[in-house]
Each structure stands twice: as structure tokens, then as C-alpha cells.
Amino acid sequence: MREKRFEVVVAGCGVAGLSAAVAAAEAGARVAVLERAPAEERGGQSRYTEAYLRMKSEAEVTDDFESHLAENSSGTLDPDLIAESARPPGQRAAYAAALSMAEPAFIATFADQAGPTIAWLKGFGLRFDFLPTQFLTKSQPRLLPVGGGLALVDGLAARAEALGIEFLYETTAECLEQDEDGRVTGLVARSGQEGRLRLGGQVVLACGGFEGNAEMLARYIGPRAAFLRPICKGANFNRGDGIRMALDVGAATAGDFGSYHAEPIDPRSGVSEPSVFVFPYGILVNKDGRRFTDEAPGTVDAHYESVTRRIFEQRDGLAWVVLDARHQRVPNVRLAIRTDQPPIVADSLDALAAQLAVPAAALAGTLRDYNAACVPGDWRPLELDGLATRGLDPPKSNWAIPVDEPPFHAYPIISANVFTFGGVKVDSDGRVVNGDGRPIEGLYAAGEIIGTYYRTYTGATSVLKGLVFGRLAGRHAARRGNAD
Fold first, then answer.
1. Burial class (CB in 10 A: 0-12, 13-18, 19+), 106
2. Fewest 10 Å CB contacts: which of 80, 153, 230, 322?
């Protein structure tokens, strides 16, 4: 087996892995980056995302950043254990040292380091702005890199190449290596060109979740995971290898392994992220022609995930949004319809039902009951208007106006799996911790492999998490690698 020695070895070439590699190289370490994909497809999911960042300026996260993360950072835990987890690591009770949760110190570091990380990225030419998003209504601002995730990948990769970082494409990490004291000393990888390799050095795992692993999806999320689809083609490279490798050496877990970030997409489309966020202006029906959820409980950025989870629960994981001609009068409505496929259009409900293959009588009854429950009011499509149905179950809480003006439009919607929630637990330096809450020497993690979320995803934080903890992990790993 061929051997190579580095100070830092990074598994994964998305924004998390690239941030770790660049930060380590800037600190003087010799660095290698492993990428399962060929060079022209490098970047995993990062190259496909628009990379929304939950920040109110280039230096500050949003006002609800820490509170939203904290509220969705664990399962149902004893409140005394949660309080114990806030104590300094050396002072905690043993049972609280490795709780499966995102700890207060982790969240605080995440928030504090977001601004410095953006400033660091700007230092080698990346630009950021408050650009239009697909959300016509939103509760929190979104900062975006100009050029989206691909710009982040290209900018970080160019910086990495200028620093002399070695890229090993079409190369997959297989297992970690440890010394007799349990310290991680490197990893074994397989390469399509060079066979098996032994790469020595501090290891940063930044190879994503398990969106592309059907067995892990069925094991953790359940058999209905067959109705899910990755949000983009890059997710098919995410096979859960990093999580498996870390668990094999005793890593503690965090995040909800039975859940994932849900986004509503058009299953007919093959483009990246063919989102359909227009459902607040119509009704959602399942394959039986029945409504099943409140389509507009609040701003779409804050509630699309919970609505999409209800779609996932329906027969075959599919629903239809049914709209009438009024939705075309919503300003900039096309921003909320990112699919490249045309709507299904009909001049009558019967004709629409036939095209959707739903029972015509059931669809007509659903629309009749919904329209009867709508009340007069001031319809304001670009703000929460409180225009709600009366006496309808389930209700519609905003933008509830009749759907009765032809032509009728419909789009199919399924739940995409943007990324899985379960992963490994890290400290504030990105060091993977073991079942006793102590760092596993020589092992770091960054990006989606870090388990963070439960219940509801804190929108526009995943890419930012990869950037922040990639940078922190790379810097810390370089210090340790140089010391060795």
C-alpha cells in the first residue's frame, strides 16, 4: 500500500472541507484533500446550493440565530442534563459529557465566528450581498455569496491550489488509523487511479451526511425514505462514510438520525433544487384530493419545512398545490417557483382532476369547502395578512382567498432530502468527542457530518456551519500537526 505523509488530511471537498484545508495550509501545514468526485464535479452539494447565510450583516448573525438553534438542538432531554451541559467540560457530571445535542458553547462559537469567517473569505476575493431569494415572505434576512455555493467552492479551491494543497480526486476515505493510545494518526483511502493509500496526519472529516446511502436512510429514517430524493446530484456522493468511520473509533453522536432537512420540490425536474414555494397562495391536496395541512401558518421561510414534512406523510409522499389565476398576480411569483417544468393547466376542476389523476368529486368537494370557509378581507400577498379561513379543518391561517378563478394551475410536490440531521459531536474547535465527552486526538469534523439539528432546521445555517467549523477545525488541526 502506498503511503503519503501530511500534517492534515481532509476528507471532503465541499465548503467545509475546503475551508479546513485552506485554514490549515495558511497556518503552515502540508495538506491533502480527498474528493470522491472527479475534479469537474468537485464540491459535493456545496457547488449546487445558493448558499443562504442567516446573517443580518456581513459581521452579524440574525437576532434569532442562537435561540432558534438552541430550541432545536436536542431531542426530549431532562432539563437538568441540559443545564449540566452548559457547565465547563471539566466540571460536568459524567452522564452529561456526551449528550446527543448541540451544546451552548458550540452554538455560541458558531454565532461569534460567523462574522470573522465572512471577513476571512472576503480576504481572498469572495463577495457577499443581500440578493433576492425564492422566499416572497420571510422572517429573517439572508446574506448570499455572489455566485452562490459554486463561487464559494471555486474561490476556496483556487486559494487552496495557490497554497500548494494536494488534491486527490476520485478518492474515498475508507477507515481511520489509530495508534496504541487511540490517537487518530491518519486514514486509509481507495483511489480509482492509485489503488489503496495510507495517508498520515491529523484528519478532518468533511464528507457530508448520508443522503446518497439508501441503506442508512432506511435504517435511520425508515422505509418511507424511498419517497425522498436528494436535493441535488452532489448529494449522491454523500454515503455516510465519515459518520461510520468516526463511530467506529468511538465518536459521540449528535443530531436527529431519524430526520433530515425537508424542502418542497417538483419530482418531474432534474435540475438542482427545483423548489416550489408557492403553496401559501393555493391549497395542497393529496392523491385522494383532500387537504391535509395549513398551507400558510406563517412566512414561508419559517414554515416550509414543517409543511413539506406533512407532504412526505401522504400516500406515495406526494401532494399537489392547486392554484387559480390569482396567484399569477402575486408580485414576482416566479421567484417562488424554481422548477423548470411547466404547470399543469386546466379550465375546469374536472379537467384538472383528470390530469392529476385524483378523484374529481373529492377535489371538487375540497375546493367547495375551502372556498366557503374563506371570508372577506384585505389580501396582502407579500406580508402576513392574517386572512384566515373560518370553521375549516385544517385551517389556512394566511392568504386564504377562494380558489375559483380559471384557469387552474397545479404543480406536484415531494419532499427533497437536503441533508440528514444525524452525525458526530464536536467541541468548539471542531474536535470530534468520544462517548465520555473527551476529544479524540487527531480527529476533527466540519460541515453536515456534525450532528446539530432536531425537529426544525434553522434555515440558512448549514453552509455557514461548514465554513465556520471548517476554518476552526483546520486551524486547530494545523497547530497539532505542526507540533507533531
1. buried
2. 80
Q: For 292-309, what is each residue's pLDDT tens digit?
A: 999 999 999 999 999 999
Average the pLDDT over each of 36-50, 73-87, 374-388 and give the range with the smallest value. 73-87
Residue 440 CA to residue 211 CA, distance in Å, equals 26
Residue 376's contacts (CB-CB under 8 Å, 6 or more residues apart) are none
Q: Are 231 and 338 spatial neighbours (Cβ–Cβ below 8 Å)?
A: no
Phi and psi at 76, nearest 5°, equal -85, 100
Helix and strand element counts for the chain (H, E): 11, 18
CA dist 251 and 254 (Å) reads 10
The closest alpha carbon to 400, from 367, 370, 357, belongs to 370
Q: Is the pTM of this model over 0.90?
A: yes
End-to-end Cα distance, the chain: 23
Per-residue burial over 134-150, b = 16 or more CB atoms within 10 Å of its CB, e = otherwise: bbbbbebbbbbbeebbb
- State residue 482's pLDDT score: 66
Cis upstream peptide for 407 (omega within 30°): yes
- State the residue for C-alpha cell 503511503: 3
Give residue 482's identity as a one-letter amino acid code: N
Number of CB atoms found within 10 A of residue 357's CB: 9
Q: What are phi and psi of 151, to 5 degrees?
A: -65, -40
